[in-house]
Design goal:
This protein is an alpha+beta fold. 22% of the residues lie in helices and 34% in strands. It is built from seven helices and 18 strands. The longest helix is centred in the N-terminal third of the chain and has 16 residues.
């Protein structure tokens, strides 16, 4: 079996957990791949034993069976961007805080890994958002698992976001910004601005304004086969677009097109770790 490990190399807790995983996998004859950052920070002596993930992904000579994301949801998004289009299932191990994507706790790692090797798991498909700029049809970053956020730049006044839905004018949002979130991302930035929560398998996206100037404008849930076109107007001539936290500054003359991506991200689920369980444990539902 071939397993790739991703993690935030700047956090000691993550490095400790990755070292533990390396020892576990060595005992179980698992072929290990590490991100370049982890290899450098762990100061491993024999780099040939732990090839770099990106080198393997480029060659496709030795396919990876699973990717482990060791950290919080931010690390999981980085992992999804790296392996998502390779159809590699991802298991999230939480060394962060809330961790809706990285659901496995570090104290359960050995038990979870045993079940993974035994084939006692399921794989969920999670929808992604693809963002295209009107400027030469440029695609922004890897696709978004959580959300695409259009925001004002710095301390400038609110922006106007003219929104078309499937070719029909929907609304001109006057706000600090607009979030287009997936069902998976409904518990992320969308939740913090009062948007609705959706179970991850819901075939829908949600449009949630950020600090809307109109109090009667509310978040809107739309089918996931919708086509969204955005034109932005601002006083300083620029705006920010964030794709799962990866930010770009664009000029107002650049329009955005957002729709469902052509591939999905595959998430490994083991035991009771899942969305409903996370609501109970991490948002204290039912308490």
């Amino acid at each position: 079996m071939n397993i790739a490990i991703f993690g935030n190399a700047m956090k000691q807790q993550t490095l400790n957990e990755v070292q533990h995983l390396i020892e576990y996998m060595a005992d179980h004859q698992i072929h290990i791949y590490l991100s370049q950052e982890l290899r450098q920070e762990l100061n491993l002596r024999d780099y040939e034993v732990y090839p770099r993930v990106d080198e393997v992904m480029l060659t496709d000579i030795d396919p990876i069976d699973f990717a482990l994301s060791v950290g919080g949801d931010g690390t999981f998004l980085t992992t999804a961007a790296a392996v998502g289009n390779k159809n590699v299932p991802i298991l999230g191990i939480n060394c962060g805080h809330l961790g809706f994507l990285a659901e496995v706790q570090t104290q359960d790692v050995d038990y979870i890994m045993d079940r993974l090797l035994e084939g006692d798991y399921t794989v969920e498909q999670r929808q992604l958002l693809a963002v295209t700029c009107s400027e030469n049809g440029r695609i922004l970053d890897p696709n978004a698992l959580n959300e695409v956020a259009i925001m004002k730049q710095g301390l400038s006044s609110m922006i106007t976001i003219d929104t078309m839905l499937n070719g029909e004018f929907l609304h001109s949002y006057e706000a600090d910004g607009l979030i287009v979130a997936t069902a998976t991302g409904s518990t992320a930035y969308n939740m913090s601005v009062g948007g609705p929560l959706m179970t991850p398998q819901t075939p829908a996206f949600v449009l949630s304004p950020i600090a809307s100037h109109s109090l009667n404008v509310r978040p809107l849930v739309i089918p996931d086969d919708s086509k969204i076109d955005l034109s932005i107007r601002s006083r300083n001539g620029n705006y920010l677009v964030s794709v799962d936290g990866r930010s770009h500054t664009l000029s107002d003359d650049i329009k955005l097109h957002i729709e469902k991506a052509r591939y999905t991200v595959r998430l490994v689920q083991i035991g009771e770790n899942g969305f409903i369980h996370s609501l109970k444990v991490k948002l204290n539902w039912g308490k």
